[in-house]
């Protein structure tokens, strides 16, 4: 692959030359015009001449992937400001570093703008986005970064793009792992588990090596429970509790269907647990869920509908949507990632809970240990969570839990080679499917 030969000087972390100053003043005056209070530079301000912004147009470039794997700060985000000098930033919290993989993909295209706007981590939380892509997606990643620049988000203080997880994950406090290969026609699920498993093993190792010791990791790329398991097993220095497989979209889908049936607005549905795998064996728990504070089964008396139609609708919602849209849920997945983060950084309302795929060791429900299984969680808003104890089970629920548990145990056997478990042996149940498959 041809790589751009760069003629422009590299000037990251240097004093500014006159041509660089004019570049800077052009950028700051455009901030001013757009009513962003112009930031004052400190003496140590840097302007990193990102290779992609300042080089003369190179000849015959195919893809401008940087020579080194070091992530590049992007465009306007290469400027560093003295936040303390700005009145409106006085109440801002300390900057957080958030990594997003698959950053040029569809889900990220919705999510990144939510993160940058402040609607996820809060309107007083400045954020640095570290975007992980690949050689394949590097130009698209630049496009994403350009759109982030043009959005003039006050809270977005840095954007870096890169293709090496060991560089991109440096010091990150959150890692949103979205990038994964979609299952193609004729591909065995075991094949998907292996290909994506390699990605998540590598990313787990990278997080273990360079991320914040208390990084919170949300795995979205499918099959997300087992990918989260692979990731955490490859990151032994990070608490296993910090890894999540995203099942919040399933929770939201379940709430919507219950609200629709009961004829209430969906904010009246609470205590919604998705148990198990983000797959068609998942169990949307109508036994413990509530509508207007009452048990669902008291409000919706058609129990056959709950056991059959409702359950299947939630399990297969992703597939129905793919048939309509021609692609999998992206916007609603991004919303659910935002919800999952908000549930960890804000205290859970009294009496309520949320679902997340988390590590089962020490769980109070008797679910097999050593897998990532969606369960009901509560948080004090400190990024951590505890499992909810006061849930009830009946025969129907227990039978379903056993099935989704068996599927996750089979997935674990299938990736044994990636989690230090010896030789892999794949005996996945035949009806094992992602929600998006039908
Ligand atoms: N848990 C959940 O609730 C949901 C999970 N998902 C899952 O999220 C993931 C991402 O979805 P979405 O953003 O829509 O997908 P896209 O296809 O739009 O983007 C996925 C990204 O994955 C990266 N990728 C990593 N490895 C490969 C590979 N071997 N082949 C192809 N692409 C690869 C690509 O980025 P790059 O080239 O930069 O690596 C690509 O941009 C999928 O696994 C999907 O199944 C989707 C909906 C719901
Ligand atoms: O199967 C997919 O890729 C889509 C998916 O997870 C969902 O819609 O829940």
UniProtKB/TrEMBL annotation:
Presence of the UniProt keyword Calcium in the record: no
UniProt-listed CDD domains: MDH_chloroplast-like
Pfam families: Ldh_1_C (PF02866), Ldh_1_N (PF00056)
Domain spans labelled Lactate/malate dehydrogenase N-terminal: 97-244
Biological process (GO), any one: malate metabolic process
Lactate/malate dehydrogenase C-terminal domain residues: 247-417
Places the protein is found: Plastid, Chloroplast
Catalytic class of the enzyme: oxidoreductase
The UniProt record lists the keyword Disulfide bond: yes
Full protein name: Malate dehydrogenase [NADP], chloroplastic
Species the sequence originates in: Eucalyptus grandis (Flooded gum)
């Amino acid at each position: 692959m041809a790589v751009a030969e760069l003629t422009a000087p590299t000037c990251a972390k240097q004093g500014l030359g006159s041509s660089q100053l004019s570049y800077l003043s052009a950028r700051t005056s455009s901030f001013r015009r757009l009513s962003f209070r112009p930031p004052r530079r400190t003496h140590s301000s840097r302007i990193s001449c990102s290779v992609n912004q300042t080089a003369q147009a190179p000849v015959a470039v195919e893809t401008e992937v940087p020579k080194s794997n070091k992530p590049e700060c992007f465009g306007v985000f290469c400027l560093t400001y003295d936040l303390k000098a700005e009145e409106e930033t006085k109440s801002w919290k300390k900057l957080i570093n958030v990594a997003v993989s698959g950053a040029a993909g569809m889900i990220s295209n919705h999510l990144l703008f939510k993160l940058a706007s402040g609607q996820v981590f809060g309107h007083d939380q400045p954020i640095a986005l570290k975007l992980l892509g690949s050689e394949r997606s590097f130009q698209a990643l630049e496009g994403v970064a350009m759109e982030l620049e043009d959005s003039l988000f006050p809270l977005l203080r840095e954007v870096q793009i890169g293709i090496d997880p060991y560089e991109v994950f440096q010091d990150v406090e959150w890692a949103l792992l979205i990038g994964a290969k979609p299952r193609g026609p004729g591909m065995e699920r075991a094949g998907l588990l292996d290909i994506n498993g390699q990605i998540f093993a590598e990313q787990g190792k990278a997080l273990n090596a360079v991320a914040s010791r208390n990084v919170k990791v949300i795995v979205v790329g499918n099959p997300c429970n087992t990918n989260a398991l692979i990731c955490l097993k490859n990151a032994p220095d990070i608490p296993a509790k910090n890894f999540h497989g995203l099942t919040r979209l399933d929770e939201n889908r379940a709430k919507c269907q219950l609200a629709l049936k009961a004829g209430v607005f969906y904010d009246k549905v609470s205590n919604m647990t998705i148990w198990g795998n983000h797959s068609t064996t998942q169990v949307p728990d109508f036994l413990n869920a509530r509508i207007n504070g009452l048990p669902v089964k008291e409000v919706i008396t058609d129990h056959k509908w709950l056991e059959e139609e409702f359950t299947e609708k939630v399990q297969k919602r992703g597939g129905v949507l793919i048939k309509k849209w021609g692609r999998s849920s992206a916007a609603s997945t991004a919303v659910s990632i935002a919800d999952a983060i908000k549930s960890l950084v804000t205290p859970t309302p009294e009496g309520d809970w949320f679902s997340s795929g988390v590590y089962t060791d020490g769980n109070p429900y008797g679910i097999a240990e050593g897998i990532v299984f969606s369960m009901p969680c509560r948080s004090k808003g400190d990024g951590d969570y505890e499992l909810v104890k006061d849930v009830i089970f009946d025969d129907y629920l227990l039978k379903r839990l056993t099935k989704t548990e068996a599927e996750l145990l089979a997935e674990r056997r299938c990736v044994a080679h990636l989690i230090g478990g010896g030789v892999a042996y794949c005996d996945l149940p035949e009806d094992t499917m992602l929600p998006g498959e039908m």
